[in-house]
Design brief:
By secondary structure, the chain is α+β, with helices and mostly antiparallel strands. 40% of the residues lie in helices and 22% in strands. Helix 3 packs across helix 5 and helix 4 crosses helix 5.
């Protein structure tokens, strides 16, 4: 697994460096960083309800190469074919009196947001090239991978205090304010804190994280593509989040993390059918994720797999959202 990831990163780095030399007068970049995409094993639509999630980092990722410049200008190029034009943007580095604003092209807003919300400074100008093999719109968190790669790049230019939780939260804030996507914390947390050969349990209320090994040689994580693409702010994700907040309010809870199925059934007449289905999925999913973690720790992979199937069925009924799907398989 390690060799495959190194090969994939090596190819991306070579592509980014070649593009950089072609765009910036043959110079070699002084800095190179990367951040992974992710797949979520279980815990769908639970992060923004302060529940539990269990993602794992992927070999797919985003690299960013570049060098500082002295004139206070930031120039960034993306090599992503799916990204809208222009694929090169240029703007002044933010200052106290000159903050960045979102605009066109949309892909640059993720980068601008991280630059604006970076937790140290002042930032110098820089040239950079971004390359990624995380599919856009496929549910593997290409946006968080881009945000975390950008933040890591900025740390090389102007180090912050190294707080990993604050780093993930700054990347989430960038997506909220510049990309217009009210995402939960899962994607940024796993991209910042993921470790090869492990899943990461995230308590989205306390922000505590726990690494769970996936190194059993009899275990295979199979990721399949449903070929359903989604656009973030144009998808139903923000609507689902509002519906969950509506359900929690009707149940008299701050979030659905605090609710149980009995609470939901008692308040069913107060909810529309759609809001009821959303809430039923989330409440059940939070409990399923807790049981899945216990099964994984006990190496009870069949129970873990059964819970994943239950999660997929609940997600299809409650949220109707297939994209990339992870499953566990036993060798032999």
């Amino acid at each position: 697994m390690a060799g495959r990831r190194e090969a994939d990163l090596g190819s991306l780095l070579a592509q980014a460096r070649e593009t950089y030399r072609g765009a910036f007068a043959g110079a070699d970049p002084e800095i190179a960083v990367s951040a992974p995409g992710r797949v979520n094993l279980i815990g769908e639509h639970t992060d923004y309800n302060q529940g539990f999630v269990l993602p794992m980092a992927l070999q797919l990722g985003t690299v960013m190469v570049g060098s500082p410049r002295r004139d206070g200008t930031i120039a960034i190029i993306t090599t992503a074919e799916e990204a809208e034009e222009p694929k090169r943007v240029q703007f002044p580095a933010p200052t106290e009196g000159n903050t960045l604003r979102p605009g066109e092209p949309h892909w640059a807003n993720y980068v601008k947001g991280v630059i604006q919300h970076y937790r140290a400074g002042p930032l110098p100008g820089f040239n950079a090239v971004i390359a990624s093999n995380v599919p856009l719109g496929g549910g593997l968190s290409s946006s968080a991978s881009l945000e975390v790669a950008t933040y890591t790049f900025l740390q090389q230019l102007c180090p912050d205090d190294g707080d990993l939780v604050a780093k993930a939260l700054a990347c989430q804030k960038a997506e909220h304010t510049f990309a217009g996507m009210p995402c939960g914390i899962m994607d940024q947390f796993i991209s910042v804190m993921g470790k090869e050969g492990h899943a990461l349990l995230i308590d989205c209320r306390s922000l505590e994280t726990f690494l769970l090994p996936l190194t059993d040689p009899s275990l295979v994580v199979l990721i399949t593509n449903s070929n359903v693409r989604h656009a973030l702010t144009g998808s139903e994700y923000p609507t689902r989040r509002r519906q969950c907040e509506e359900a929690a309010k009707a149940l008299g809870k701050a979030t659905l993390r605090e609710a149980c199925m009995a609470d939901l059934e008692a308040a069913r007449t107060l909810l529309s059918e759609v809001v009821y289905r959303r809430a039923r999925h989330v409440i059940g999913e939070i409990e399923r994720t807790s049981r899945a973690v216990q099964a994984l720790q006990a190496k009870d992979y069949r129970t873990f797999g059964r819970l994943m199937v239950e999660s997929h069925n609940s997600l299809r009924y409650g949220c109707r959202q297939p994209c990339w799907v992870g499953t566990l398989q036993l060798r032999g």
